[in-house]
Design a protein that fits this description.
Elements: H1 2-8, E1 29-42, E2 45-58, E3 62-66, H2 73-80, E4 88-93, E5 96-97, H3 103-113, E6 114-118, H4 129-133, H5 135-139, H6 144-157, H7 173-185, E7 191-195, H8 203-218, E8 224-227, H9 231-234, E9 239-244, E10 247-253
Parallel strand pairs: 3-8, 3-9, 6-7, 7-8
Antiparallel strand pairs: 1-2, 1-4, 4-5, 9-10
Helix pairs in contact: 1-8, 7-8
């Protein structure tokens, strides 16, 4: 059960990829978004997806982003994750101005500083769980033996080490999302971005996955930004940012 997996994170054999860097203080800003805007050109004219977004996120904070469909919340997550460039504004991760970098440097930021968890898991279905989890460290050039060691450590902590040689396509939705969480952690990123991580799961499994994310933040000082439609889960994060028509409507601290 996933509750057991979450509980296993409290054991002594916790890999460094789960425990946040001791060099970063709890009140330190990990993310700073300044005047961020995104405008798309369409046949009917310009579409403003984001307009003048400003906020900061501190180390270890668990922030939820909410809003109706088409409000711009996923677009915002893609900007933060350097998956798309803004039309204007800046994104700072660990005080690095991400979009002042060249393309290869931005790719390195995505690989080294950001972990991604998607609604549809985005696993390679024909590959094994181990190969999926170690993709970020393989891309970063880590030696195979060390990459295997790091990936297996995290899978053990999440309680999915018995699935190491299983093909991703053979796992349940909940198991695939746990694999995605392990993959997001393996490179010890500064920020974990989760786009509707419980959206494809039943209520019980979704709750259990959310409990893992909450434990990673509150017990292991991981910084998590989660887009969700689930207001009940959002109430249990540290702060909620409500997006409407591409702008921040309000922020709520819980």
């Amino acid at each position: 059960m996933l509750v057991q997996y979450a509980g296993s994170l409290e054991g002594r054999s916790i890999p460094n990829s789960i425990v946040a860097s001791k060099g970063q203080e709890k009140n330190q800003n990990v993310l700073r978004v300044e005047n961020l805007s995104k405008i798309y050109n369409s046949e009917s004219g310009k579409v403003v997806a984001l307009s003048n977004i400003n906020f900061t996120v501190k180390k270890g904070e668990f922030v939820s982003i909410l809003g109706p469909s088409g409000s711009g919340k996923s677009t915002l997550l893609y900007m933060i994750g350097a998956l798309d460039r803004p039309s204007a504004g800046k994104v700072y991760i660990n005080e690095v101005d991400v979009f002042s970098l060249n393309d290869s440097e931005i790719a390195m930021v995505r690989n080294r500083l950001i972990g991604y968890i998607f609604q549809s898991y985005n696993l390679i279905n024909r590959s094994t769980v181990l190969k999926n989890v170690k993709i970020p460290v393989t891309i970063s050039g880590m030696a195979r033996t060390e990459a295997n060691f790091k990936a297996i450590e995290i899978m053990k902590a999440l309680g999915i080490d018995d699935k190491i040689n299983e093909k991703a396509a053979n796992l349940s939705g909940g198991q695939q999302q746990r694999v995605a969480i392990a993959r997001a952690l393996v490179n010890n990123p500064s920020i974990i971005l989760a786009d509707e991580p419980t959206g494809n799961l039943d209520t019980k499994t979704g709750r259990e996955v959310f409990e893992i994310l909450k434990k990673l933040s509150h017990h292991f000082n991981r910084t998590i930004i989660m887009v969700t439609h689930n207001a009940e889960l959002a109430e249990e994060t540290d702060r909620s940012i409500f997006i409407k028509d591409g702008s921040i409507e309000r922020e709520t601290w819980h």
